Amino acid sequence: MGNPLKAAQTNRKADPKTKDKIIDAAEVLFSGKGYYGTTTREITRQAGVPLGLMSYYFGTKADLYSEVIIRRSKEHVAAISASIKQAKAVRGEASPTAGDLVRAYFAPLVKRSLHSGPGWKAYIHLLSRAANTPRSEPYVGAFNETYASVNDEFIALLKEYFPDAAEEDIYWSFYFLSSAIIHILVESGSIDETSKNTLHSSDLETILDKMGPFFEAGISRLANGHKKGG
């Protein structure tokens, strides 16, 4: 199978408005029903365009999925990267905690989900689904390629912050953090049920505030408990 990122970026003569309608519809449906739960007929019906235009503009459903991931990715990756760089700059002037680093990585996701409109909300939900999909699934190739760089940037910051930590513990720390973020951004309602509706999974600002100290303790303990060569 070819490179999904490259395939999705292949130039086609297309009406931008029609393409955007299809991408908008696919974004909402993929985020709510998943890749396999969404049909191309549903997408074109919601977009209000003939079924044949989907394959004309995008080729396969997998190519369309890649296009949906890619469309907002440049802006989103730039925001996360800028937040990480800011945390790194502050580290040169003061002593940010591990919780501050967690906030730097997670805050742009919360901001997009809460304050950037329904399109971004759907996109953030879609990213959570994609991140929770086995990497062996070909259709998530564009997600893996697009977001690998910013994840590597954050991991590098953790390594810099904990220079004596065993590398494996840095990777485990990121794995635990990213797994929590994936679940949180879906806003599943699980905390609502567990807390008898006194807490809400949609309260991302509060979750962001709580995650900092929680992961500060966990990451610091893990990173400081197993030194390089130990």
Summarize the structure.
The protein is mainly alpha-helical. It folds into two domains: 4-70, Arc Repressor Mutant, subunit A (Orthogonal Bundle); 72-225, Tetracycline Repressor, domain 2, CATH 1.10.357. The protein has helices spanning 4-8, 16-33, 40-47, 52-58, 61-71, 73-93, 98-115, 118-131, 141-161, 167-186, 190-194, 204-225.
Throw out a few tags for this protein.
Tetracycline Repressor, domain 2; single chain; 230 residues; Arc Repressor Mutant, subunit A; mainly alpha; 2 domains; 74% helix; globular; 12 helices
Description:
With 230 residues, the chain is mainly alpha-helical. The chain has two domains: 4-70, Homeodomain-like (Arc Repressor Mutant, subunit A), CATH 1.10.10.60; 72-225, Tetracycline Repressor, domain 2 (Orthogonal Bundle), CATH 1.10.357.10. It is 74% helix and 0% strand. It has helices at residues 4-8, 16-33, 40-47, 52-58, 61-71, 73-93, 98-115, 118-131, 141-161, 167-186, 190-194, 204-225. The protein starts with a helix and ends in a 5-residue tail after the last helix.
The CATH class label of the largest domain is: Mainly Alpha
The CATH architecture term of the largest domain is Orthogonal Bundle
Average pLDDT figure: 89
Gap from first CA to last CA: 42 Å
SSE arrangement, N to C? HHHHHHHHHHHH
Oligomeric status of the shown chains?
A: single chain
